[in-house]
Amino acid sequence: MASLMFTDCSSSTTSRLIHLNRRSGTFLLRQCVGQLRLQTTASGRGCCIRSSSSPISAISADTKSSEGAAIVIDGKAVAKKIRDEITIEVSRMKESIGVIPGLAVILVGDRKDSATYVRNKKKACDSVGIKSFEVRLAEDSSEEEVLKSVSGFNDDPSVHGILVQLPLPSHMDEQNILNAVSIEKDVDGFHPLNIGRLAMRGREPLFVPCTPKGCIELLHRYNIEIKGKRAVVIGRSNIVGMPAALLLQREDATVSIIHSRTKNPEEITREADIIIAAVGQPNMVRGSWIKPGAVIIDVGINPVEDPSAARGYRLVGDICYEEACKVASAITPVPGGVGPMTIAMLLSNTLTSAKRIHNFQ
Ligand SMILES: Nc1nc2c(c(=O)[nH]1)N[C@@H](CN(C=O)c1ccc(C(=O)N[C@@H](CCC(=O)O)C(=O)O)cc1)CN2
Predict the structure, then answer these.
(1) What predicted TM-score, i.e. pTM, was given to this entire model?
(2) Is 121 a known active-site residue?
(3) Which ranges form a coiled coil (predicted)?
(4) Which of 89, 128, 278, 302 could connect to 240 by a Cys-Cys bridge, CB 3.0–4.6 Å?
(5) Which of 163, 342, 343, 347 has most ligand 1 atoms within 8 Å of its beta carbon, as the pocket-test mutant?
(6) What ipTM was estimated for this complex?
(7) Whose CA is nearest to atom 31 of ligand 1?
(8) According to the model, what pLDDT value does residue 9 have?
(9) Architecture of domain 2-73+210-339
């Protein structure tokens, strides 16, 4: 007997374990007429899946898939492909001009999630041949100590990319620290000059923030048209929502941003052909918010209690996946959607930086 974990979207912290016996399995398979298989996703949630590993030919953002099941946009697979492409470029650069791209990461404090992300960034660098440098500072370090590390990496010619892992401890002035990163090495794209250029027509940023860049890259790699579409971005953070909205606008979408003071979020979201959700609220967007056939990019990575999971919790997005996948034409899962793309885009930005600094085409 197999078992599937379904999230109860009406409650973010409770979940039901539904045993899938032969009968219910048949029922689900019938619902997925024409589908390839019945599958539990990496997070253990069930959905009908048309394609999960290879980019597809154009999906219309206007029309609902006839089967009533979304294509799963496989960020993990796309990120792997991008890492393979970067590996080739890194070795071509090394062989041609003897330069190895270098990425420096500054981690302040002892947040477990941040430590995991930094460890994963180092692993990803190793896997593509990028050199990595790391500074770890204690939670009670001073802002001056962080600025000193930034300044050291700004002056180090073997470092082509610098990032300060966020969030920083609350006693630090985040903007002051991000401003100190050399704009030529700002591979996170958080420097105000890079963000400012992103917002201006006719100006190009040196780097685009990794998570929003990953969202757009997924749309491109799955041939999802953006031009002329109505897009809704839920959330207006500096690192995801705001730059994602700017990028969609640059791609000629008509963009609305939904935030905590928006009066009618459901109504506005229901108009969208493309939804990017980056609000940090587990399962906030329900199936009823979604226009049939919309494409959904879920940036949320929210831990919810789950005693049956090895870690005692599992990750869910901002979108109620099992409702949304019946309405949308394509959707990113959590985990395995946008998350892996963030690190792939970081590697890509670091390679771009090294090429630019060394004038290597
Ligand atoms: N300086 C920065 N700080 C932060 C950024 C950033 O882009 N630059 N983004 C996030 C954290 N982040 C990278 O730093 C990040 C988050 C999640 C993932 C990821 O791959 N998630 C997996 C699930 C991981 C798990 O199981 O725990 C997934 O979604 O599949 C990568 C990077 C905030 N800080």
Answers:
(1) 0.88
(2) yes
(3) none
(4) 278
(5) 342
(6) 0.98
(7) 339
(8) 82
(9) 3-Layer(aba) Sandwich (3.40)
